[in-house]
Specification:
Oxidized Rhodanese, domain 1; 2 domains; five-stranded parallel β-sheet; 10 strands; 12% strand
Length: 285
């Protein structure tokens, strides 16, 4: 059985010696781009390899395509092949817990057509809470895999699509940033504050329970179901990263078919002709 959304710590622990499993450490902080690698070098799950958010999980920045543009699909697949990934490989990504970076990896794998990818529910926090081992040892090298790209272009929308569907019921735009940034307050990352007109605010942190694990599927289903047809939902955030956590939450809830605006707010505001709104979300949002 393939894991395609989440896997819990004990289930993953039972596969640490399974050659079909490749574990990927995606820890990162937006305040310090080198922090993820330092954390990995200090301690990581046995056998895990490190994926760098800024290099392996993002593409080249042009100044107009956002802070974390999608990587070239073939380049991302080459990275996966280099860590031993083939079509039959079960990938498991983790971050610190209640975070967005493992979900970004999950999204990219789905985008290039690899479904056997899951996020460690609760991340490293849940692994540690379960008393499971970590190590500073480098993983044993694997033979290169043979993964090939089967791109799902329909999973991603661009700025032109968003602009064409503003305030259109064919698109329900969900902004995964915190409520303050959505409202245009306390913006410290992007040069313009506010949100895309018509967007609704669904902070990605609200998907998690106090133990850093995703909330139960029925609870998530009720929350996202209030936004209507999943196929109309487009997730966005600051740069296309935390939006993936909302997409993953919907998939966990059994609500399939939503998409991601990959460039998100940082790409949107790079074009001064794009409209911007400020102000808090209204109660129905």
């Amino acid at each position: 059985m393939a894991y395609t959304t989440l896997i819990d710590a004990h289930a993953l622990a039972s596969h640490l010696d399974d050659p079909r499993f490749v574990i990927v450490d995606c820890r990162h902080t937006l305040a310090d781009f080198s922090a993820g690698r330092r954390m990995y070098d200090e301690a990581h799950l046995p056998g895990a390899v490190f994926a760098d958010m800024e290099h392996n999980l993002s593409g080249e920045k042009t100044g107009r395509n956002g802070r974390h543009p999608l990587p070239d699909p073939e380049s991302f697949a080459a990275f996966l092949r280099g860590i031993g990934v083939s079509a039959q490989t079960q990938l498991v990504a983790y971050d610190a817990g209640a975070d967005m970076f493992a979900a970004r990896f999950w999204l990219l794998c789905r985008w290039i057509g690899h479904d056997a990818v899951a996020v460690l529910d609760g991340g490293l926090a849940a692994w540690d809470a379960a008393g499971l081992p970590t190590t500073a040892a480098a993983p044993a090298p694997r033979a290169p895999g043979d993964l090939r790209v089967a791109l799902r272009s329909q999973l991603i929308v661009d700025a032109d699509y968003v602009l064409a569907h503003l305030r259109d019921d064919a698109m329900r735009l969900l902004d995964a940033r915190g409520a303050d940034r959505f409202a245009g307050e306390n913006e410290t990352i992007d040069p313009v504050a506010g949100h895309i007109p018509g967007a609704r605010n669904r902070p990605f942190k609200t998907n998690f329970s106090a133990d850093a694990r995703f909330k139960p599927a029925d609870e998530l289903r009720a929350a996202f179901g209030a936004y209507g047809d999943p196929a109309a939902i487009v997730h966005q955030c600051g740069s296309g990263v935390s939006a993936a956590a909302n997409l993953l939450a919907m998939e966990r809830a059994g609500l399939t078919g939503s998409r991601v605006y990959a460039g998100s707010w940082s790409e949107w505001v790079a074009d001064p002709s794009h409209p911007v709104e400020t102000g808090a979300a209204t109660p129905h949002e």
